Amino acid sequence: MVHPVLDSLTNEVIERSKKHRSAYLARVNEAANKGPHRLTLGCGNLAHGFAACPASEKDDLAAGAKANIGIITSYNDMLSAHEPYKDFPQLIKEAAREAGGVAQVAGGVPAMCDGVTQGQPGMDLSLFSRDVIAMSTAVGLSHNMFDAAMMLGVCDKIVPGLLIGALSFGHLPTIFVPAGPMPSGLPNKEKVRIRQLYAEGKVGRDELLKAESESYHSPGTCTFYGTANSNQMMVEIMGLHLPGGTFINPNTPLRDELTKEATRQILKFTEFGNDYRPIGHMIDEKAILNAIVGLLATGGSTNHTMHIVAVARAAGILINWDDFDRLSQIIPQMSKVYPNGSADVNHFQAAGGMGVLIGELISAGLLHEDIITVADQKGLKNYTREPKLIDGKLVWQDAPEKSLDLEVIGSVANPFAKTGGVHVIKGNLGRGVSKISAVEPKHRVVEAPAMVFDDQDDAVAAFKRGELEKDVIVVLRFQGPKSNGMPELHKLSSPLGVLQDRGFKVALVTDGRMSGASGKVPSAIQMCPESAEGGPLTRLKDGDMIHLDTEKGIMNVLVDDNEFNARMSCMMANTEHHYGCGRELFDSFRAGVSSAEEGAINMFNVE
Fold first, then answer.
1. Which contacts (CB < 8 Å, 24+ apart) does range 9-17 have?
2. Where do the Dihydroxy-acid/6-phosphogluconate dehydratase C-terminal domain residues begin and end (predicted)?
């Protein structure tokens, strides 16, 4: 039985989304009713579409005898998470051929890494790359050659972008294929210790690079629980991955067999079979709320308070931060994976992984079990199983009923916290979000004077000069999507962590983002309205006392309301972040982007 709060909220979301969802489904159904779109192409169109195929496949595609899978890939060999995808298209093509189908690479999408661009000019393109990926996905699928789609992507903006793009072709059955995390390297806690020593000037660049290289050391996703692995959790809990396949390491026999099985599986759901499962029907209100539940239960990345909103709207579903807040009151934090703990995602997988997590949440009525998935049976209960290779054959077995390591995965009855790991922040400085899952309880309430900056480099310079050696709330303005594309501000994590370790009360308040790896320092981020729209942060002055309670979700500047509201807003005229490294190409994105709470969307109407 579904928890009454989840049930009530689901009905509210269905009701408020009725108009938009109905219009979206009408478009999906209209496209589906046309049958295989490839057969409506003219002879010249079709000839172009299969010119590079073997002769037998040309005959099959021309006759409409077999389903054709379009592969959208984020492969590049500069980024560890995406390098394993180099071999996937060939695996998919061979598996499709054996299963009576055809597969073609429909297109590629850019895959940038916030870990590489962190603190660099390229980071200003990061958030907007999600929308570029969505549009690139649509371009790849726009040839109308395909009866199904397979999405190869892992990291921060890539998966949300692929999802949004796939939903624009909602009549196509779609499956997501993960690459898997790299094996464990240098423990994340040790990596952060070296980073803080470097920030203090106690170790040099050689020591820092050695530690970073031992942490990020091979093909596969980074092993901490940031946005990339939050993506992977989200996709599985919505039923778009094969059960239990999310955190299987790359370049292993099991990983390869899961990729082949994903191919065989998606062919079952096309219009050529009798079990048609288009992604536009799969991603409904219940699936979206399941994604939010998973985010809260695992203390996942705050980036998803934007991405899930954007994905939902692409499917005609309207959610907001108040929905996150209501669910956070009933969803316990059930996992501790760095930065929420010392374990990494490989430890999470060994402790029982997604099967244990999903089983616990279903048993407590905290997930919708009755959703359409890419498993053989439609319900989410299938995701309490995990894949194994036995005598070379892929089989699914029941996952452990309980966690195999209670320091990594807890239970609903005995969670690590009674409420979700992401809280909404409200008060006279606007609305934002805070990730509290990695913040020790003694640091979750801070009252201190503000120091106001408009550039993160200025804040780092102030730290190096010793000007932040005190109780302080660092306020960083003009970091929202309209200002400069909303870069992650992970560069501030080490300096603020050092100050906290020295015994000072510190916090960060910003209309920008923090990395999915942000951890122990309390924060209120993604503040709306943002500074570029004259938000309240523009009226703050150095020395203003700010009270931040991340547990209760309250933040206020302790200045008389009349005095504060009478202050002139400080409007930044600096356009330094609008040029260089390709940033000048994104003027229209900055001008047209919606607020963080509305998903920071550029591509479609959010009304």
1. 9/289, 9/323, 9/326, 9/327, 10/285, 10/286, 10/289, 10/368, 13/285, 13/288, 13/289, 13/317, 13/318, 13/319, 13/323, 14/285, 16/318, 17/285, 17/316, 17/317, 17/318
2. 407-600
If residue 27 lies in a helix (H) or strand (E), which one and from where to where?
helix 4-33
113 annotated ligand binder: no
Where are the alpha helices (H) located in 99-245, listed in sequence order?
114-117, 126-141, 158-167, 188-199, 205-215, 227-237
CB atoms within 10 A of CB 76: 16
* Ranges for all domains in the chain classified under CATH 3.50.30.80: 424-574
Which is nearest to 367 in space by CA: 344, 334, 396, 337? 334
CATH architecture of residue range(s) 424-574: 3-Layer(bba) Sandwich (3.50)
74-106 pLDDT, tens digit per residue, is: 999 999 999 999 999 999 999 999 999 999 999
Nearest to 173 by CA among 67, 291, 312, 289: 67
Does 155 count as an annotated binding residue?
yes
Nearest to 528 by CA among 399, 433, 404, 395: 433
Q: What is the pLDDT of residues 363-380, one digit of tens each?
A: 999 999 999 999 998 899
Query: Residue 112: what residue type?
Result: M
CA dist., res. 61 & res. 69, Å (int):
11
Closest CA to 103 of 63, 149, 134, 141: 149
Closest by CA position to 350, among listed 517, 183, 220: 183
CA 463 to chain CA centroid, nearest Å = 31
Any residues with CB less than 8 A from the CB of 75 and at least 6 apart, and which? 82, 83, 85, 86, 88, 108, 111, 152
Length of the chain: 607
Helices 493-501/188-199 angle, 10° precision: 90
The token pair that represents 60 in the structure block: 């099959």
